[in-house]
């Protein structure tokens, strides 16, 4: 069985998400949370519905974030 670490094209298949795509999902989660907040506040007159905004961002982080992108890269010169 061939070793995938020797092939540089296998690294390109795991490219990080583009900035446009991540920005789209961020704005989508914000819009969802804001929509829930506005609808809930309109129906009940309770401003606590706007807590849906940070909740939607947190759920979006769980589904769309890649924790591997937050790790320092190997060989960046810092040790």
Helix segment count? 3
Structural shape: elongated
CA(first)-CA(last) distance: 35 Å
Radius of gyration: 19 Å
State the low-pLDDT regions, or none. Answer: none
Mean pLDDT reading: 78
What fraction strand? under 5%
E-strand count: 0
Largest sheet: none
Task: Spell out the helices and strands N to C.
Answer: HHH
Class computed from helices, strands and strand pairing: mainly alpha
Oligomer: single chain
Report the helical percentage.
55-70%
Write the layout of secondary structure elements.
Layout: H1 8-12, H2 19-44, H3 52-64
Helix pairs in contact: 2-3
Offer a few descriptive terms.
mainly alpha, elongated
What does the model show?
There is one protein chain. Helix 2 (19-44) runs antiparallel to helix 3. The protein is elongated and about 50 Å long. It is mostly helical. It contains three helices and no strands. It is 56% helix and 0% strand.
Brief summary of the model shown:
The chain has three helices and no strands. It has helices at about 10, 20-45, 50-65.
